[in-house]
Write a structure and sequence with these properties.
three-stranded antiparallel sheet; mainly beta; single chain; four-stranded antiparallel sheet; Methylamine Dehydrogenase, Chain H; Immunoglobulin-like; about 500 residues
């Protein structure tokens, strides 16, 4: 392991396509032959325990070198040591190694010694769950991302508070489409959203519905009151009416029939003098007009989350304490029938503070995240699980999160990824992102991702990764620059 690092090398990705990792190399020891040196050029490791090191032998050896290799991991063994190119007068050789240690160590120290060249040491970082996936580059967004959802062809629709994307910067006002690799999709034009875009979803036809705080959209700008729809090329869809919502829209949800649910902190829709009351939740027809068959839910305060259940009912979370025509008591969580009336069969728990996200598991149980610290008098810090009937699931432990939760993702194996404003979970440091076991306890195999600021959104991503969006600008203990959108290894 290096005691006196002198430089940081540029690294290349190994053949099995894992994230490349930077390695710090020691100055070469005095070689046995005058002027001959051995130097580490690059290194990579993967989550299966395989790794490689590229070394430069200068001058190139005349025969076949046979180095002596030692590791600080007792389970590590060497594979091949084979030529892999040249660099000036030096010959490049790749040392392959693997470890049988379980779990795979976070780092493996390697020393390579060769008669006539001396020795050199390095530490190889083995990618771990919770680490930044460096295969997904920094998209260079100019501001926070509020939502990031899959689009067609593996692309991403992102919305938020940014006004430019890429380097050099290209104008994209609060809404953009990214290619699968994270670069800007230039075929989706600047949508000209006039203020925060809190939520965006792509329809089956490629059009994108957006909710937020804006009152204008399009280039040139035209009036659009907090909900708008854009064509698949980023231009404003003028066939979708201006709903003229009188307050911020925090979330939009697309129904299979093309109708749009919108939740936020509004109380009516339509032109002044001809407005229709809708307390914090409404449904729009596919053309943007108000769906009058969906009753006024009469919710008492802001709606932050919407989830469409299999039976068409809508699970609603927020800051409210009452809902329904006669304003029945509902503490931050309520369920509505397909016609907008309150579902009285779902009373819900007594949550002590706001809800920001809900996710229904395959078994029907409901994960709830937000700002609360108790549920029906039982300690549940910012995350809980409810039974199908809305009662507290006491088999799910208090995760001990010390600040609010904004995003939840359930993995196929039942483990739960969580993001928000917290810096601790289960008594351990976990900055804004963590993973829990299926019973709510902290998964200690998932390292601290060390997001520099709040995480606001989670989306499943390819190659066993998760995409996190938010207000952060660096990721990881080394504060790697990665602004507002990052991919994390699972």
């Amino acid at each position: 392991m290096s005691l006196h690092p002198t430089r940081r090398t540029v690294v290349r990705t190994a053949a099995w396509s894992v994230p490349a990792v930077a390695v710090t190399t020691a100055a070469p020891a005095r070689a046995a032959s005058v002027g001959a040196t051995i130097t580490v050029v690059s290194s990579a490791g993967d989550r299966t325990g395989s790794g490689s090191i590229v070394v430069a032998l200068d001058p190139a050896p005349s025969g076949t070198p046979a180095p002596a290799v030692t590791y600080d991991d007792p389970g590590a063994t060497s594979g091949t040591f084979s030529p892999s190119g040249t660099s000036g007068s030096a010959a490049l050789y790749t040392l392959a190694f693997s470890t049988t240690t379980t779990p795979v160590p976070a780092t493996i120290g390697v020393t390579v010694a060769l008669a006539g060249y001396g020795n050199t040491s390095t530490t190889v970082t083995m990618p771990q769950p919770g680490m930044l996936d460096t295969r997904f580059p920094d998209p260079r967004l100019s501001g926070a991302v509020r939502s990031a959802l899959p689009a067609r062809d593996g692309k991403l629709i992102v919305s938020g508070d940014f006004t430019a994307v890429g380097s050099p910067a290209v104008t994209r006002s609060r809404l953009a489409r990214l290619n699968a690799g994270g670069s800007l999709d230039s075929s989706f034009a600047d949508p000209g959203v006039g203020n925060f875009a809190y939520f965006a979803r792509e329809q089956a036809d490629g059009k994108v519905v957006v909710g937020g705080a804006f009152t204008t959209a399009g280039v040139p700008a035209v009036a659009r009151g907090r909900v708008a729809r854009f064509n698949s090329d980023g231009t404003l869809d003028t066939s979708f009416a201006d709903p003229q919502v009188n307050g911020v829209v925090n979330v939009v949800l697309l129904q299979p029939d093309g109708k749009v649910l919108a939740g936020g902190n509004f109380t009516w829709l339509g032109a002044s003098g001809a407005a229709t009351a809708r307390g914090r939740l409404c449904r729009l027809n596919a053309d943007g007009t108000l769906d009058t068959t969906f009753a006024d839910p009469n919710i008492s305060s802001a709606v932050n989350s919407l989830e469409l259940q299999a039976d068409g009912k809508v699970l609603v979370g927020g800051a409210f304490t009452g809902a329904g025509a006669v304003r029945s008591r509902r503490n931050r969580l309520a369920r509505f029938n397909v016609d907008g009336t309150l579902d009285t069969s779902f009373v819900g728990p007594g949550l002590s503070n706001s809800v920001h996200v809900t996710v229904t598991q395959p078994d029907g149980k409901i994960l709830v995240g937000g700002e609360f610290t108790s549920v029906d008098g039982s300690a549940r810090n910012r995350l809980c699980r409810l039974n199908v009937d809305g009662t507290l699931d006491t088999t799910f432990a208090d995760p001990g999160l010390n600040a609010l939760v904004y995003g939840i993702l359930v993995q196929p194996d039942g483990r739960i990824v969580v993001t928000g404003g917290f810096t601790a979970a289960g008594g351990a440091t976990r900055r804004r992102l963590c993973r829990l076991n299926a019973d709510g306890t902290l998964d200690t195999t998932f390292a601290d991702p060390a997001l520099s600021n709040v995480g606001l959104w989670l989306t499943a991503a390819p190659d066993d990764t998760v995409l996190v969006a938010g207000g952060f600008t660096t990721v990881g203990p080394d504060a790697t620059p990665q602004a507002y959108l990052a991919r994390i290894l699972l």
